[in-house]
Amino acid sequence: MPAPDQAVIRLKARLLRSYRARICGDLVRPATAASLLDLPPDLAPGLREALTARGLPQLYSHQREAFDLAQAGRHLVVATPTASGKTLCYNLPVLDAVLRGGKKALYLFPTKALAQDQVAELIELGRALKTAGGEGVRAYTFDGDTPGDARKAVRTRGDIVVSNPDMLHQAILPHHTKWAQFFEGLAYVVVDELHSYRGVFGSHVANVFRRLRRVCRFYGVGPTFIFTSATIANPAELAQRLCGEPVTAITESGAPQGERHLLLWNPPVINPDLGIRASARSQTTRIARMAAVVGLKAIVFARSRLMVEVITKYLKDVFDKDPRRPPRVLAYRGGYLPSERRAAEQAMRAGRVDLVVCTSALELGVDIGALDVAILNGYPGTVAATWQRLGRAGRRLRPSLGVLVATSDPLDQYLVRHPEFFFGASPEHARIHPDQLLILLEHVRCAAFELPFRDGETFGAEDLTEMLSYLRDQGVLQHQGDQWFWVADSYPANAVSLRSVAEGNFVVIDTTGGTQRVIAEVDWSSAPGTLYVGAIYMIQAQPYQVERLDWPGRKAFVTRTQADYYTDAIDYTRLKILDRFEGRTCGQGATANGEVHLVRRYPGYKKIRYYSHDNIGYGNIDLPDQEMHTTSVWWQAEPRALESALPDRAQAIEGFLGAAYALHHVAALRSMAELHDLGRAVGDGQGTWFAVTGAEGRGQLRGPDNAPVDGEGVDRFEPTLFLYDNYPGGVGLSAPLYDAADTLVRDARDLVAGCACTGGCPACVGPIMPGDEARAITPRAAALAVLGLLEGAV
Amino acid sequence: MGFEDRLRRIRGQAAVPEVPPVPSLPDGPTLAERLRRVSTGRAVPEPATTRTPDEAALAAVLGADILAPGVLRLERRLDARLRHGRGMLGSAHVPQHLPWPPAEASPGGSGLQPRPDAAEIGEAGSRPQLAPTAAHSVWLCLDTETSGLAGGTGTWAFLTGLLRAAGVGWCLRQYLLTRLDAEAAYLDLMGAELAPDAGPACLLTYNGRSFDAPLLTTRFRLAGRPDPLAALPHLDLLAPTRRAFARVWPDCRLATAESRLLGVQRADDLPGSAAPAAWLDWLRRGETGPLAAVLRHNRADLLSLAGLLPVLDAVYRDPAAFGADCRSVAAAHQARGDQAQALRILAANRRDLDAAGLHDLARLYRRSRDWGRAIGIWEELCARGDPEARAALARFHEHRSGDLGRALELALALPPGPERERRCRRIAEKLERAGRNLSLGELGVT
C-alpha cells in the first residue's frame, strides 16, 4: 500500500481523470509551515513546566499574539482555521490570571457537549500543573444538569466556570449576589464559536452581555472578552456588536497545515429539460468507496440523520458483508446513546474504522484522530461550517482531500460554480440587531430586575427613559429618587427565550401512546406555516402529524405517523410599504429599504409525495390572518423598461417570482441566515395586488381578498419584489441586504444564468410545469430579463 | 415621514385594527405605539394608575414609628405568660431533645457536598461546625414578608419581623420598608438588631434557611453592606418538623404545624401569598389596610415560631404523644449519635412499629449486644415470612450462636440469588469441616 501522502494525491488524480465533467472546481491550498514563538517570559509559576510537559514548549504566533493582547486587557477574537489551537489562545491568559491569584473566568459555549469537553481538557491541564508542582485549577461546568447542592460549590470555589448563554441569562445574572465572590474576581469572559451568535440568538446574547457588563460594573470589575470563531467575513465587527466594545481580530494562523485539496463536484445532469441531476448520495457513496479501496480513511458528512443511515447502509453493503470481521463502516450522529458514541470515537481514534458517516455532530470538538478524505454530501448551509467539516481531514500535516458534492438545491448549485466562495475572503457576514425593539425591551426588563436603573444610565441605542417609563406604566417598575426599582412578583428571565422574538414559542407535544412529551419548539412566526391541523411535522426524518392546535396556549399536539408524503402550506403574503428609510436607482429600476406591514393568509396545504414530489391532495387550514410589521428590502423595475423587456404582464409576473426565488437563496447565503429567516413576496407595494404561483404553475395576480385580478387591467403596473426579515419588528437582516443589493442581484443572475436547465428548475427559479421549457419565453428567461433590468445589464 | 402620517397609513388599511389615539412625540411614534405595531398576538396591557402614599398616615394606622424616611418600626413587649394557642410563650426554653443544634455560621458555606468533578480537582467540601445548643440561650425569631416568591435579585424583603428573647418574655420589632429608595437605611436599622453588638443570639426561623436568610443576604449585598446574618448561628424548625411529620401530615407549612401542635386557629388571617399585592397596593396607591393585615400575619408567624420550639423539643422526647413518626424521629437521634434516645423511643413504641421500624429496633439491640431482644424481633418477623429477618437470623446462628444446622436451614429458605448461594455454600463448608458429611448437591446448592 502506498504512503498515505501519495494515496491522497493519486485518488484525486483518478477522480479528475474519470469524472472530469462532474468536477467544477479543483482547488489547492498549499501547505504552510508553523510560525512559532517563545512562551511569554514571565508566566505564572508552574505554567511553563506544565505546558512543556504537555508537549507545548513554544506557541504558534497567533496564540502568543492572543496572550499578549489579553494581558494588555484588550478584547480579542481569534478567527483561525479548525485545529489551529484556538483553545490555548484563551486557556493560557486565563490560567495565568487564575494562578497569579484570585482571578476567575467564565467560559460560554453554545452547547453542553462542547462545555463538557472543555472541562475535561482543563482538568488535564490542572493535573499537569499539579505535577509541575504548581497550584491546581478548579474548573466546573454550570448548566441545567448541575445538581442544586453542587451549585454553591461551583459559585464559591470555581476558578473557571463553564456554562452557556442561557444559564447566564436565566440562572446567573438574576442571582448575581450569590455569585458575588465570582464576579468580584472575574477577569475573563471566553466566548467560543462566536459565529453561531447571529440573527435572533446573537441579538439576544448581545443584550445578555450588556446585562453582564452592568453587573460586573456593580462589582467593580471590567472583564476582558476573548472570542473564538470559525472563519467569517466580519469576526471583529460581530464580536464588537456582541460585547459593546472595540475588539481586535487575530486572523493569521501560525499553525502548520498540510496541503489541502478541494474538489467541487456536481452530479451529472440526467434530464437536461428539467435540469434534473443524479442524486448527491450516489456520488458521495461512489467517492467514499474509491477512497476506502485505496486504503484511505474518510469521513462523510450528511445533512440529516436519515441520510446518514442511508449512506451507511449502502457502504456497509459493500465493505461489511462479512459479519465475523470488525466493521469498517460506522455511523455517528445525534440520537445514539452516549456509550455507543464513546465506543465509536474510540474505534475511530484507534484507526479501526475506514469510513465514518456522520451529521454535524462530528463537526466540532470531538477527538477522532487523523483522516485523509472528507466528503460533504450537500452544502452544510454556511461556508464556515463547510470549512469546519473539511478541517476534519488532514489533521497531521499530511495532504488531505475534501470533496463537496452538490445537491440540486439552488445554494448548492450556486456554490459549486463559485469556488471563490471557498478560497477567497469569506463572503459570510454574521448579523445581529441588539436594538431590535422587542428583544431590547425584554432585556431592559431583565436588567431592571437584576439592578435598579439610575437616571442617566444607558442600555442599547433606544431612549432608556422611555422604555423604563413604559415598564413603569405596565406596573413592573417604580421610579423613586433617581432610580427605577423592580416591584413585580415575577422572574422576567424565565419568560425570555434567547432563540425567539418575544411572542412566545409554540411547543410541539407528542401524544403518541397516551403520554405527553414536548419534542420541539417552533418560533411564533413560523408556526402558522408549519403547525396546522393535518400538517406533517418532521423531526429528524420522523414524521408526526398535527392533530390539534391550541393557538392561544401556543401548543400543537402531534402523534407519530408513517406518512409517505410531506405537507407544504400555501400562503398568500400581502405586503404594504409603510415607510421608506432609503432608496436609490439600481439598473433600470430602483431598490429601497424600509418598514412594511405584512398580512399572511394560509388558506390550505398541499400533500406532496416523497421522491416523486407528486401533489397527492389538499387540506384546509383554519387560521386567522397573520399580521406582522417588519423591515424589508425591495426592488422595482422602471415600468417602461419592463414593458419593453417583457410586454406580457403575466410573463413579467413570472419573471419577478423567479427572480425572487433566486434572490431569496443568494441573500440567505450572504447573510448567514436560514432560508426561513427571510421571506419573499411579489406585489405592488400598496397592498392592491400580489402575485402567487397558481395551481397550474403560472404566476397569478390576486387582490386583497385573494380573488384573482386581471394583470392587464391594472392601472399602474409596478411589480415590486420584496425580501423581508421574517421576525416581528425585524432582526436587522434587511438593511445589510439593501447595502449589498447590487451584489445580490448579480449573484442571483449568475445563479439563474449558470444553471444547467433549459427553462427553469428548482435549482434556479423554482419548480416549473412540464412544457414550460418549450415556451417562447421560459420562466428562466423571464427571471433573467427581470434580474437584468435590476442589474442594469440590459 | 411623521408619526401622524405613519398612523394614517396604517389606519387606511382595513386589515389593521383601529388604533386608539396616542400622544405623539415630535420626532416619531411613542414607544408604546411602536411596540403595539410590532407585537403580534399579545395585547399590551393598560398603564397602571398611581397615587402618592402617605407615610405618616400609615404609621398611625399601624401604631408604628417613623425611624427614617421610608422606614417604619413597630415595637411591642410580650409577657412570658402570653398565651398563644394551647401554650405560653416563655423565651427561656433550652432544647434538650431536638437533635438539631443550630448550624454555626461559617465562612466555608453551608455544608453542601461539592460535585464529583470538584472532588476530582482535589477540593473537598467541609461540613459546618456544629455548636452545642445550650450556648445560645437568646433566641431571635426572624420572619420576612416579601414582594414575591420568585427569588433572585428582584425580590424585596419589605417587612422583617424580629422577636428577641428579653428576660423571660419577648421583644417584638417589625421593620417595614415604605419607600423603595430607603432600602439602605432600612437594612442599616434592621441589620443593627442582628449585629454582634446587639448581643449574642441564635436565629430561629421556619424555612428561613433556604428562603428568608438568603433573601436578606441578597438585599444586604445589593445595598453594598456586610451581611450580619453570616455571623449568626441559625436553627431552622422546618427540617425537624418535616422529619417528624412529613409522613403524617398533608404538608408541613407553618400554619399546619401551629394548628396541630399549638392549637392555634387564626381568624381573618391574610394569607402570606397576598403580601406582595398588599405592598404593591401601598406603593402604587397608598393603601394602608392590606399592609396592616400583613403585619398582623407576620406577628402571628413569629409567635408560632416561638411557641413551636418547646413543643418540637417535646416531640423529639416523646414523638408518639404528638402523633409523630417514631421511626423517623429515632433515626434523627441516631444520626446525631444518640443511640440511647433512639432505642428508648423505638422500644417504647414497639407495638406500633412496622417491619422497617422493627428492623431499626433490632439493629439497635444488636449494637448494644442485647441479643435476646434482637432475636425476639427477628423471630417474630421471620414467622411473618420476612426474608431480611431470616437473613439476620441466619447470620446470627452462623457467626454467633454456632448453631450451623439452624443457620443452614434458615439460609436455604432465603430467596434465590447469589447471596443465598454464597451463604449456603459457606455454611455447608463449615459443617463439612465440623465433620458432618453432607454433600452440597443434597442440599440443593449447586
Question: In summary, what is this structure?
Answer:
The complex is a heterodimer of chains A (794) and B (446). By secondary structure, chain A is of the alpha/beta class.
Notes on the protein architecture:
The complex is a heterodimer of chains A (794) and B (446). By secondary structure, chain A is α/β, with parallel strands linked by helices. Chain A has 24 helices and 35 strands. Chain A folds into five domains: 191 residues, Rossmann fold, CATH 3.40.50; 215 residues, Rossmann fold, CATH 3.40.50; 42 residues, no CATH class; 58 residues, no CATH class; 220 residues, no CATH class. In chain A, the strands form eight sheets. Chain A has a seven-stranded mixed β-sheet with strand order 1-11-18-17-14-16-15, with helices on both faces. Chain A has a seven-stranded parallel β-sheet with strand order 6-7-5-8-9-4-10, sandwiched between helices. In chain A, helix 9 links the parallel strand 8 and strand 9. Chain B is built from 17 helices and nine strands. Chain B starts with a helix and ends in a 13-residue tail after the last helix. Chain B has 446 residues and is an alpha+beta fold. Chains A and B meet through helix 5, strand 6, helix 6, helix 17 and helix 18 of A and helix 1, helix 2, helix 4, helix 6 and helix 9 of B.
